[in-house]
Design brief:
Length: 155
Amino acid sequence: MTSQFSQRATAAPPRLWTLWLTVVSCGVMFAGLGMVFAPDLTRRGFSLLLYADAHHLDTWGVEAGSYISFVHAVLGAVLFGWGAALLCVVRGAFMRGERGGWNAIAVSAMAWFIPDTVYSLWSWVWQNALLNLVIALLLAISLLATYRTFHAPRR
């Protein structure tokens, strides 16, 4: 008896989608590293995104700016870790055509996207929700394109 996480697809997914997800995973990792190693740039980027002014967050004072940079760095480390996990799944189970690889990518994307986007919208930070949507679409395109490969009826 096999579980949904160990079942093999009828065929491996097309190389395009493995490459696509590899690039997206590496993009998530590099974005995370950027948040860790370029805290001023990250703070200014989010300030520009949220307030249309790259230096607005700097007006909150040095202590607040330091805390914001710290939180961004922690978030960046989490993004780096998620990207690394995605990359391992993509280059392993997904590439081998294991249904669990597809499921792990889909579940982790939803586990991030839903609460992050709901909270962003609840907080009236639509800019972050829009950024989330772009990243989610990059993942969803490949997942939708390979759905039948991984979820076709078994014969």
